[in-house]
Amino acid sequence: MLTLALILFAADPNAVGDFSILTCCCLGIGFCTTAFYVFYIREGPLSKIASELELKYRETLGAGAAMKAKKEEGGGKQWSDWLKEG
Fold first, then answer.
1. What number of other Cβ atoms are within 10 A of residue 84's Cβ?
2. Is 51:71 a contact under the CB 8 Å cutoff?
3. Is position 68 within any domain?
4. CB of 26 within 8 A of CB of 1?
5. N- to C-terminal Cα separation, the chain
6. What pTM was estimated for this model as a whole?
7. Which of 13, 34, 69, 70 is the most buried (most CB within 10 A)?
8. Residues of the domain holding 18
């Protein structure tokens, strides 16, 4: 995007046209990447696998009992847990 912006602003003195071209390009790329994420990335299975791998990792460190208890309570980390860790 930065290279395209450099080429557009160096070659064309019309800044309004350059901004509209850059806007359309950014929107197009954003739409494509969002569509790819929505249709091809499956969050459910990935979060389940991540929780299982985290449990295995914590067990190897010796903190598995606390993690098992937390998983039995309601499972995994919540958004507030990430804020508490700092």
1. 8
2. yes
3. yes
4. yes
5. 33
6. 0.50
7. 70
8. 2-40
